[in-house]
Specification:
Arc Repressor Mutant, subunit A, 8 helices, five-stranded parallel sheet, about 20% strand, alpha/beta
C-alpha cells in the first residue's frame, strides 16, 4: 500500500501510538507536532489523507484547515478532545471530511480513514460530467455547484451526498443507502448523519435560493425532484 498519511498532533505519545498502528496497517506516515509545520507539510503535497488535531500550538487546527482548503482538497479527518455540536459543525463547514473525538478506538479511526480514502479526488468513478435538477447544476469534474448560475460552496461530504442524490434524481433513496454510498459501509459515526447533512444542503440550496429540490419521504429517505 502506497497511501501516505500526514498526522498533525502535538501529543507526542498519542502521535507515536497512532503512527505505529497506521504503519502496521501498511500506511506511510509523516508527523508534525504544531500547526505551522503541519500546514507547511500539507501544502507540500504528496499526502493521500491528513489527520489533524484542533488544539495545536503555533496555528490551530481550524486555521490550518481553512488555509489548506484554499489550495487542496486532500481528505482531512479532525482529531480532537472537543465533542460539542458547534465544534463538529465548525470543522465540517470549514472543509473537514470527518471528525473523531478522543479517546477513540483505533479500529474506528481506521474505518473512517478507509471511508475518506474511498472518496478522495480522482476516485469518483462513473457518472462524471454535469448533473442538473431544475436551476441546480453540478460539475463533477470541476467539483463545482451552482444555482441559477450563482456558485454554492459545499464541503466534500455535502458534495458527495448531493451528487449521489442527483445521480438518482426522482428516485427515493433510503438513509441506509446514503450511508453506504456516501459515508462507506463501515461508517461508525452518529446514525443521524444523513439527516444532519440534508439540513446543511437545504440551508445552502433550498432555503438560500427559495427553491424546493430536496424532499423528505417519511419513513423511507430523501429524493431530489425538479420543481
Amino acid at each position: 500500500m502506497d497511501t501516505k498519511i500526514l498526522l498533525v498532533e502535538d501529543e507526542e505519545k498519542l502521535a507515536r501510538m497512532v503512527e505505529l498502528e497506521l504503519q502496521y496497517e501498511g500506511y506511510q506516515v509523516e508527523k508534525a507536532f504544531d500547526g505551522r509545520s503541519g500546514l507547511e507539510k500539507a501544502l507540500g503535497g504528496g499526502f493521500d489523507l491528513i489527520l489533524l488535531d484542533i488544539m495545536l500550538p503555533a496555528l490551530s487546527g481550524m486555521e490550518v484547515l481553512r488555509r489548506l482548503r484554499k489550495e487542496s482538497q486532500v481528505p482531512v479527518i479532525m482529531l480532537t478532545a472537543r465533542d460539542t455540536v458547534v465544534d463538529k459543525v465548525s470543522g465540517l463547514d470549514s472543509g473537514a471530511d470527518d471528525y473523531i473525538t478522543k479517546p477513540f478506538a483505533i479500529e474506528e479511526l481506521l474505518a473512517r480513514i478507509r471511508a475518506a480514502l474511498r472518496k478522495r479526488p480522482g476516485q469518483e468513478g462513473p457518472g462524471q460530467g454535469v448533473l442538473t435538477a431544475g436551476v441546480l447544476s453540478m460539475d463533477t469534474q470541476r467539483h463545482e455547484v451552482s444555482v441559477s448560475g450563482e456558485s454554492v460552496e459545499l464541503t466534500r461530504r455535502e458534495f458527495d451526498l448531493l451528487r449521489y442524490l442527483l445521480e438518482n434524481k426522482e428516485k427515493v433513496i433510503s438513509r441506509e443507502s446514503l450511508l453506504d454510498h456516501v459515508w462507506g459501509f463501515d461508517f461508525v459515526g452518529e446514525t443521524n448523519a444523513v439527516d444532519v447533512y440534508i439540513r446543511f444542503l437545504r440551508a445552502k440550496i433550498d432555503e438560500r435560493f427559495g427553491v424546493k429540490l430536496i424532499h423528505t419521504v417519511r419513513g423511507v429517505g430523501y429524493v431530489i425532484r425538479e420543481e
